[in-house]
Amino acid sequence: MTIKEVCEKFDITPDTLRYYERVGVIPEVHRTKGGIRDFTDEDVAWVENAICMRSAGVPVEMLIEYVRLYQEGDGTFQARRDVLEEARQEVQKNIEKYQATLDRLNFKISRYDVAIKTGVLSWDDCKEE
Amino acid sequence: MTIKEVCEKFDITPDTLRYYERVGVIPEVHRTKGGIRDFTDEDVAWVENAICMRSAGVPVEMLIEYVRLYQEGDGTFQARRDVLEEARQEVQKNIEKYQATLDRLNFKISRYDVAIKTGVLSWDDCKEE
DNA sequence: TATTGACTTGGAGTTAACTCCAAGTTGTAG
DNA sequence: CTACAACTTGGAGTTAACTCCAAGTCAATA
Questions:
Q1: Which chain A residue has the Cα nearest residue B113?
Q2: Looking at the whole model, is its pTM more than 0.85?
Q3: A60, A103, B25, B98: which could form a disulfide with A56 (CB 3.0–4.6 Å)?
Q4: Burial zone of B61 (CB within 10 Å; 0-12 exposed, 13-18 middle, 19+ buried)
């Protein structure tokens, strides 16, 4: 699979993919004799994983560490689990924060729905608009 | 309320607060005769709101736009609602992405739990570690 | 085989959101 | 009144994560 195809599949740019490989967010990608990237299914799976993790704000640094441990071999199961667990807690915490913000937004929007109808923004117990 | 007290209340730095005021993430803060910030309850409420929104990744740009509309007065209810709605959709979308990543992390972690016990990382139907 | 378009690299540039700094001002404690 | 810590400003610097660029290489087509 060419870099272009992978980029289309995941809707990212070649620059981002090359950057991911360069810094180690994904392991080195398989190449043709000429040196051109030719993604195997496993390469693609790494890309998919990286994009999923990044989309939830897992830092590049953490993904690099995970790949590094992976390449070190079977002695790093626990260390890899630890990295994943740290990521998990971060993501979990963020979901909670995001949910709180979503609630606040829903409340504010509902106040504006009333305001748009009545021409007056109710104050209730909240101080700011 | 001094800048220090507000910072302690929300666990942020004075630099961040001053930056928020400077770029318009919050409206201009009340001052003493000497020109030193003296946050009213309303100022603090704006800070709280900004921090909540930022903690869910709502861009500074969007908060600035909201404050700008707020200062324009009662003719901007609909426009303000639109900004909030856009933010809401972003946050909602992110929660979904984050949840998908959380699921993936949980799956990977459970595989590592097995691997740590058995010494072998099961491959099942997934290609990457 | 010549052209053309996609690929390669190393390195520089960009963006959002802070974060830090220097130089000066305010206000409180002694 | 004098220290002196905490405040002020405008502007420069930092960080993470890309994003762009120039100069060169590869490969499919005419």
A1: A81
A2: yes
A3: B98
A4: exposed
